Amino acid sequence: MSVQRPFQQLASRATAQSCVQRSQHSFQGLRIPQQQSRCLASVAPPVTQNATGSKGPTAMVFMNMGGPATTDEVGGFLSRLFADADLIPLGPLQNYLGPLISRRRTPKIKKQYAGIGGGSPIRKWSEYQAAEMCKILDKTNPETAPHKPYVAFRYANPLTEETYNKLLEDGFGKGRGGRAVAFTQYPQYSCSTTGSSLNELWKWRQRLESPTRNPDLSAAEAEGSIQWSVIDRWPTHPGLVEAFAENITKTLETYPEDVRDNVVLLFSAHSLPMSVVNRGDPYPSEVAATVWAVQQRLGFRNPYRLVWQSQVGPSAWLGAQTSDTVTNFVKKGQKDLVLIPIAFTSDHIETLFEIDQEVIHEADQLGAEGRVRRAESLNGSPTFIKALADLAGAHLHGGEVCSRQMGLRCPGCTSERCLEQKRFFTGLGQQKNKALTL
Amino acid sequence: MSVQRPFQQLASRATAQSCVQRSQHSFQGLRIPQQQSRCLASVAPPVTQNATGSKGPTAMVFMNMGGPATTDEVGGFLSRLFADADLIPLGPLQNYLGPLISRRRTPKIKKQYAGIGGGSPIRKWSEYQAAEMCKILDKTNPETAPHKPYVAFRYANPLTEETYNKLLEDGFGKGRGGRAVAFTQYPQYSCSTTGSSLNELWKWRQRLESPTRNPDLSAAEAEGSIQWSVIDRWPTHPGLVEAFAENITKTLETYPEDVRDNVVLLFSAHSLPMSVVNRGDPYPSEVAATVWAVQQRLGFRNPYRLVWQSQVGPSAWLGAQTSDTVTNFVKKGQKDLVLIPIAFTSDHIETLFEIDQEVIHEADQLGAEGRVRRAESLNGSPTFIKALADLAGAHLHGGEVCSRQMGLRCPGCTSERCLEQKRFFTGLGQQKNKALTL
Questions:
Q1: Where are the alpha helices (DSSP H) in A260-321?
Q2: Chain B within 8 Å of A203 (Cβ-Cβ)?
């Protein structure tokens, strides 16, 4: 079940009567905070809104970590990445250690990006996926059309700040209301990834649209801010599972028929520091749910393991490590291995460099004879894009604010930013004692 | 998919013709080792076998860790537990540290068992569940009837050795063949639990029925040993999921209706040392699969977390810890919590003492006002027993030797015992270069 509120009633063309209904509205026990069910009748429609009865336009904002499109952007990308305590917790010395580590790593990482063609393809894929999804939504969900695709990256261009300003330029918010969906492109929720992106989105929302943070806003502008909802996790969406299964099957078909069922599938996800796991981050469990769903779809034909890649630094991270696993299996004589990037939907440095050029290269040096292979990332998969549209379409119809699970902070969480962000996105605003657990 | 071999063809009443078919048999690409498809025509039927065309009797052997039925058994139980490197890896000093720790802990643990009524109820529940399941199987699977219930515990009576000898006394093996199913009562596979039980079963099989280990066996006795198959994991069996969902729903109904959807569900499983997790143990992922399936069945109505309990000793274990989680949530004002034992099917010291008398007691001392509760363990749940029968019935019909996944050792595994055990139970015997990955 999701946390829901009636977006129809939050739309900008309201009547006096619907305002009354709105302020009294409650849904499945979750009362709608007054400031979110306020009357917006006086608010002008967004400039791009069509006048044919649609509640659109709707901004569909794809959130992801992003990656440097050119090697010149690597320095800035890494400095933002190592400054983010949600992603890489470095303790009280974060502001000192972060820049130090990022400066030291920049030359090495520049070479890696040079090695995969000079930059990350993640912007290209994200923009393509968002645009293609919106085309489908315009047909399947005419009531919220037109759907406008946006991309907001956490560490690379287009940054969240840039995208938020673009939304305002395009006619959303600033007194004109309008609806935007923050759609995480991490299928499994982690405070390090989706949580960090939402913290950043909330930060810019406060800076640009909150009257308490931005005194230049007029009363009307403050009233007609963007109405956000969040698609915060989708680890076992059947379309996602199908897209993974298709790409795995394609790769398995490259092996001779008599060994095909004995190929070991290694589902590989970015690891997490144990400090994050032990705080109660939901990511390891949700990644496991994806893996189980994909294996179920494939009929458990092949033996498999979920393994974890891309550990950085000396602290303890969740294992087994992908690279060690491949090395161990190849040394034991199990050379037929398919690596499946299971927690990222587009190619990025961890697939194109770490898996393809490091892990597989090392396996071949140990005698794997080209039998360690990688399933293609979802990238432009039509099945995947259809899944995105299916998921977003249901969200737009359903009036979800976010999942029920998003309201629950990790048991060991002490982040005030996380608390405020969750209060905002779950629609609980300043209601400190609301029923939903924070 | 499972590793299969045709049990029908391994039955003891064979004809000369079926022997030929047998030796040529292959199933879905997995060739049957010669020594397992050998002709058993000369073997006498088990003494308890009925003569009405049934392939039974079939021994249904429930494997679990067990628990001391009286406080006098605590010392022996703990000494076996801390001697088991599969469960508690203490390194090269295991033989020294194990007895030391178990002796030191015995008085404390005795008190805990005294506090839950003088002993563990796990034997009572296991014998009840196995017997009730067999009654159902006798009706649903007449071709393998009668089904005879057995319990084999790893650390308490009835120990695996005792149960194996009972099987031999009852007419299985020793030249009489007969089929036995090793049915793990841990729904999710860990090398620490199911793996350890299988290692123990394999050890006694070798000692009692292998001609290389037991030269007193006659040729006929060695030929007609027990034919084992294994139900090695069932984390998302729909009946299991339904049984959990029922007990959770019952507990949720004890909360007032207006807070019911805001109760946080804490699925609690026994933790693992990080050394085992990092070796690639499948348990954390399979527990997560159970949790996801139960939440899916419940419609994700409530926020939840998967948490881990019962850490012992100073080394790193997988978290977040159950007790810390409850403390943190209660301190933050989230008092409505339901604890769900998700990786064990009967009550035991970790539910009756650790959760009920420690965790919940501490929560109440922090002001939880009785709002932290526990869902009942599956114990005598008819839905659960039906699930066991459903699962076992499908296994008996399907000719499974074990799951496909069981053949794959953990990436970091270096245990020769584990290797040999898997070779035996997957039916690969001495075939060192078989297709299945070991």
A1: 274-279, 283-297
A2: no
Sign of CA dihedral A286, A292, A298, A301: positive
Contact B264 A2 (CB under 8 A): no
Q: How far apart are CA A41 and CA A17, in angstroms?
A: 10
**Same structural domain for residues A279 and A205?**
no
Residue B116 lies in a domain: yes
The answer to whether A266 and A227 are in contact (CB under 8 A) is no
Residue A322: give the domain boundaries: 238-374
Contact B437 A259 (CB under 8 A): no
Amino acid B8: pLDDT: 41
> How far is it, in rounded angstroms, from Cα A385 to Cα A130?
8
Per-residue confidence band for B258, with pLDDT thresholds at 50, 70 and 90: very high
Residue B305 has its nearest CB partner, among A282, A305, A307, at: A282
Tell me whether strands A227-231 and A179-184 are parallel, antiparallel or unpaired.
parallel
The whole-angstrom separation of Cα B26 and Cα B28 is 7
3-class SS of residue B221: helix
Distance from CA of B137 to the nearest CA of A (A): 25
Query: Residues A133, A209: one domain?
Result: yes
pLDDT at position B5: 52
Min Cα distance B303 → chain A (Å) is 5
Residue A391's domain is classified under what CATH number?
3.40.50.1400
The helix (run of H) or strand (run of E) holding residue B386 is helix B382-398
Q: What is the DSSP letter of B231?
A: E
- Residue among A187, A184, A192 at smallest CA distance from A279: A192
Residue B211, in any domain of the structure: yes
**CA A436, CA B3: separation in Å to the nearest integer?**
47
CB contact under 8 A, A319 and B407: no
Q: Does a structural domain hold residue A26?
A: yes
- Do B320 and A235 count as a contact with CB atoms less than 8 A apart? no
Q: Quick one: which H or E segment has residue A59?
A: strand A58-64
Same domain, A175 and A63: yes
Regarding whether B395 and B338 lie in a shared domain, the answer is no
* pLDDT tens-digit series, residues B78-93: 999 999 988 888 888 8
Same domain, B66 and B204: yes
pLDDT mean over A395-403? 91
Number of domains chain A is built from: 2
Q: Are residues B188 and B304 in the same domain?
A: no
Inter-CA distances, B182 with A99, B61, B127, B174, Å: 56, 5, 14, 18
Q: Would you say A374 and A363 are in contact if contact means Cβ atoms under 8 Å apart?
A: no
Q: Are residues A365 and A387 in the same domain?
A: no
Q: How far apart are CA A257 and CA A372, in angstroms?
A: 16
ipTM of the complex: 0.88
Catalytic residue, candidates B86, B147, B232, B237: B237
A273 inside 8 A of chain B by CB: no
Q: How far apart are CA B77 and CA B71, in angstroms?
A: 10
CA distance B118 to B263: 33
3-state secondary structure of B371: coil
Residues B230 and B247 in one domain: no
Phi, psi of B269 (to 5 degrees): -125, 155
Q: How far apart are the first and last CA of chain B?
A: 17
Within-domain flag for B2: no
- Residues from chain B that touch A437, judged by Cβ atoms under 8 A, are 262, 264, 303, 329, 332, 334
